[in-house]
UniProtKB/TrEMBL annotation:
Annotated M23ase beta-sheet core domain residues: 334-431
Lineage start: Bacteria, Bacillati, Bacillota, Bacilli, Bacillales
Peptidoglycan hydrolase PcsB coiled-coil domain residues: 107-180
InterPro entries, sorted: Cell_wall_metabolism_enzyme, Dup_hybrid_motif, M23ase_b-sheet_dom, PcsB_CC
Signal peptide segment: 1-27
Protein name, entry field: Peptidoglycan DD-metalloendopeptidase family protein
Pfam families with a match to the protein in the record: CC_PcsB (PF24568), Peptidase_M23 (PF01551)
Residue ranges that the Swiss-Prot or TrEMBL entry lists as coiled coil: 26-130, 175-285
Keyword entries, A-Z: Coiled coil, Signal
Length: 442
């Protein structure tokens, strides 16, 4: 066996031996915690949506309620205005009735005069009938004894004739006036009564509208109270999920730190094994022929480089999106990694040696693998998203360059690619410790 291959086999055997003693149950515990966290975060999202929906409904109801209250105020003003008109109409009717009472006295006086004239005319008619059916004013004039007597008789006849005419004129005028006064008062009173009835109907209609609006206001206020109670319940439940999520964050952080420490110790052990293997190889090479060292140094250098903790690109392909702000059609967003596009199934490898802390589906990430690393004593995490297949399991130790899955288009993705993230510190739901991968990879 060649010296380099032998060295690598020794290091690999040591790494595999160490892996056998890693606490996979704890890694499974981390996976369970992260799944619970996803579930609680999904529930938080649903509760937030419910709270927002209730807020929108309350806002819409409040807007409708304000319109109803404004309508009620408008109806109140119309009712007050209509009632004022009704009061004015009633005052006019009362005044007209007073005028009618006064006119009734005048009518009674006219009726009395008419009756007296009618009686006088009847008397004259009876006198004419008793005298033979007519009054001959010529006989009266011709019966004068002298010219003076004739003048007196002529004047008396004229007075009588004019008196009869005046009686007839007055009688006709009074009857006409009586009819006009009665018609005027009756018409005026009828118009005022009709106007009042119209106003009363209008007021009744306004009262009915106001009652209807008041019932709507009552119903909406009850609906507002119901929505407020439901929103309060959702907010209380949301607060509980926040507490649960915070507790899960602490547990996940503690578990990630523990796994990171295991990974760190495993890395130290691996490096120590490799150092021992290189030292043994160097000692063997020192005892070998003079031509062997140059070739061996080159191979040793390659071996050292392959086992280093420097991050490598996890896949091949085109860089389609970098770290930072971007817009892929759903508005501005923060892109927390780099995207590498290639054909479906293109191998995806570990960017550095570490431990699998998550392997499965995670919402927008689709099928994702998360590795925890210990780099020079500092915990790091790498994320590999949108995979078509996953080749590792939680708790498994992987070496740098080992395939962890295949490139795909799962989750929130616009095409086959790998979404790759580097986090300084353990991976967390908020992803606040994500850094630009470009300066870290080679």
């Amino acid at each position: 066996m060649k010296p380099l291959a032998k060295c690598l086999m020794i290091a690999l055997s040591a790494l595999l031996a160490l892996t056998m003693f890693l606490p996979t149950a704890s890694a499974d515990k981390l996976s369970d915690l992260e799944k619970k966290q996803q579930e609680i975060q999904q529930k938080q999202s649903e509760l937030n949506s419910g709270i927002q929906q209730k807020t929108n409904e309350i806002s819409q109801n409040q807007s409708t309620l304000e319109k109803i209250i404004a309508k009620i105020r408008e109806l109140d003003n119309q009712i007050i205005e209509t009632q004022t008109k009704i009061d004015v109409a009633q005052a006019e009717i009362d005044q007209t009735k007073i005028e009618i009472d006064e006119l009734r006295k005048s009518i009674e006086e006219l009726e009395r005069k008419i009756a007296e004239r009618e009686e006088l005319l009847k008397e004259r008619a009876r006198a004419i009938q008793l005298s033979g059916g007519s009054v001959d004013y010529i006989d009266v004039l011709l019966g004068a004894n002298s010219f003076v007597d004739f003048i007196d008789r002529f004047s008396a006849v004229n007075i009588l004739i004019e008196a009869d005419r005046e009686i007839m004129r007055e009688q006709a005028a009074d009857k006409k006036l009586l009819a006009e006064q009665k018609a005027e008062v009756e018409t005026k009173l009828a118009e005022q009564e009709a106007k009042k009835a119209e106003l009363v109907n209008l007021k009744n209609s306004l009262d009915a509208q106001k009652n209807e609006q008041a019932q709507l206001e009552k119903d909406l206020k009850a609906e507002q109270a119901r929505l407020a109670n439901e929103k309060s319940s959702l907010q209380a439940e949301h607060a509980k999920t926040m507490n649960i999520n915070a507790d899960l964050e602490k547990k996940i952080g503690a578990e990630q730190a523990r796994l990171a420490e295991i990974a760190r110790k495993a890395e130290q052990e691996r490096l120590a094994k490799e150092a021992a293997a290189r030292k043994a190889e160097a000692q063997r090479q020192a005892a070998a022929s003079a031509s062997a060292p140059a070739s061996t140094v080159t191979q040793a250098s390659v071996s050292s480089k392959a086992g280093s903790s420097t991050f490598i690109l996890p896949s091949t392909g085109r860089f389609t999106s970098g770290f930072g702000g971007r817009d892929i059609g759903a508005g501005a967003e923060s892109h927390l990694g780099m995207d590498i596009a290639n054909s479906p199934g293109t191998p995806i490898v570990a960017a550095a040696s570490g431990m699998v802390s998550y392997a499965g589906n995670m919402g927008g990430y689709g099928n994702v693998v998360i590795l925890t690393h210990s780099i020079n004593g500092q915990t790091h995490a790498t994320v590999y998203g949108h995979m078509s297949s996953i080749n590792v399991s939680v708790g498994q130790s992987v070496g740098q360059g080992q395939q962890v899955g295949g490139m795909g288009n799962t989750g929130r993705s616009t095409g086959t690619h790998l979404h790759f993230e580097i986090h300084v510190g353990p991976w967390n739901g908020a992803r606040s410790n994500a850094v630009n991968p470009a300066p870290y990879v080679r």
